[in-house]
Design brief:
176 residues; 5 helices; mainly alpha; single chain
């Protein structure tokens, strides 16, 4: 990959994050964060003052998830997990202490997004076409470019879901 193409990809990431995704999360309330708009939602559950994130095997079709769950998914396996892929550092997002508030999760999301951004910016452009070593069992061989585009897609996808859930919550008069 050329330096110019890498700059274009990073520029799109920055634009989507700053202009289209993150502003739609400003002002997120705890009530929205925890809102369960459908029965049997996946969400974070408090256990002994902590909010561990459970990664159950997906159902078919997958259950509806809360904003809390979606944000934890973006933070942990998506941003921090794949930041480790680019930086070579170990990923330890399974042991994160998940905040029990919207504000705490937004701060953690901002930090995770910055961590991924730094890892992707620091990664040499000429290595984006290389295959990642040791892909997870069952996954095809992927290049670093494939992973970058996957993370970009996940961020846009889940960011849009959060925005829609906030719109629905507001349309209901801010009531769960």
């Amino acid at each position: 990959m050329s330096d110019g193409l890498k700059r274009a990809l990073l520029g799109q990431w920055d634009y989507k994050w700053r202009v289209r995704i993150r502003p739609r999360m400003d002002g997120l309330t705890d009530e929205e964060f925890w809102w369960e708009p459908a029965p049997d939602c996946w969400t974070l559950k408090e256990e002994d003052g902590q909010f561990p994130h459970r990664w159950p095997e997906p159902d078919d079709p997958p259950p509806f998830t809360t904003i809390a769950w979606r944000m934890a998914h973006m933070i942990g396996p998506v941003l921090l997990g794949y930041a480790a892929t680019f930086s070579g550092a170990p990923a330890d997002w399974d042991n994160l202490r998940w905040p029990g508030t919207a504000a705490g999760s937004l701060a953690m999301l901002d930090e995770a997004q910055a961590t991924f951004g730094i890892a992707a910016q620091s990664f040499p452009a000429d290595r984006f076409r290389e295959r990642i070593p040791d892909p997870a069992p069952g996954l095809p061989e992927l290049t670093y470019a494939d992973i970058y585009l996957h993370v970009f897609d996940e961020l846009v996808h889940h960011g849009a879901e959060v925005a829609v859930l906030r719109d629905l919550y507001r349309a209901r008069g801010g009531k769960a």
